Amino acid sequence: MDTFTHGNLERLIAPQQGPCVSIMMPTHESGEDGQQDRVRLKNLLNDAQRSLAGHWLTSVAARDFIKPVEVEVEKTDFWQGRSQGMAIFYSPQLFSVFRLQVPFEPLMVVGSHFHIKSVLPALNHRDRFYVLTLSQKQASLYLATSKSIEKIVVPNLPANSNSALGYSDFEREVQCHSPMHASHGERTAIFHGHGGEADSEKEELKEYFRQVDKTLTHIMQQQNAPLILAGVEYLLPIYREVNTYKGIVDPELRGNLDDNPANQIREQAYELMKPILQNRRESATNKFNNLIGTDYISGDIHKILVAANQGQIESIFIDAGTLVWGKYQSTTRNVYVHDTREEGDEDLLNLAAIETLRHRGEVFVVPREQMPGEDFIAATYRYRPKESR
Q1: Which CATH number do you get for residue 235?
Q2: 111, 112, 194, 342 - which has most CB atoms within 10 Å?
Q3: Which residue range forms the structural domain that includes residue 11?
Q4: Is a pLDDT exceeding 80 seen at residue 195?
């Protein structure tokens, strides 16, 4: 089984030079059904080649385009590590295969975008959250979910408080000594040479944390995920004083975590974050329901596509079992919905999800019975659409 991460999602929703081939299919670990997986995938690749030849490429170019995938699937190791489902994404810039615990319905789509709607439940991407571990020695930012954690490499992030304040390690050693409290084992710095100011340490920590906050906030805003602080208890309220990221939450993971493995940090942080994360979908549902009868919500795929393209969508619910075939022309804002799939069509619900994610909105792909409203799509706007004003 493979891990589908937020980094994978970001690459899939990025603009591509088409055509983009997306294939979903159920898979089986062994037995007769396992043998049929090869046949099923071969048939889906043949469908992809015909679709490419019908709209995107010549017949010869379509055959050449799909050939690298056909070669890859003939390799023995391609079929190792199978789980309940397989997702294949292929374009001139990208070739990715994910073996996931999602029993996909067989689907092949060729279009200008990858069909990511089906894999979003595997990512459970609304369970993501940031963990910021803080100490005087270092600050580290992680992006985590219930099952994974990734350390984010942040250019220009101060290496430690000395670096942020322009001290060398030798200067810091001369300037302060740090005894241990016998009762709690906590380290408290005592500073000299600053006029005897009792708050000198706190002011220097605030300056260090201001630099950390300034460096991290614009990065965290790209994902719009909640942030939990982690670190020695006395440092956390000082960071809160200078924090400017709106997604910071009240629970804290307390203790010296400098030497803790990342997965241990994830496990402890997730236990604190679980109630908050579970409430996000419920809150989005309640907000939609409370706005029924206003211009701040919509179940109209035409209006939603235009709004998503302009970054107006705050959150969107999509029926996991529905495909809406058609075309969207962003230049003219024309939306064409077809009763049956036509050549060159794409799933307009998938396109709405991509545009919402690109503009950092929330996307919930849920079963029909969990949909708010009565339509197969339900969107809440960040602000009232211009045509409604």
Answers
A1: 3.30.420.60
A2: 111
A3: 6-123
A4: no
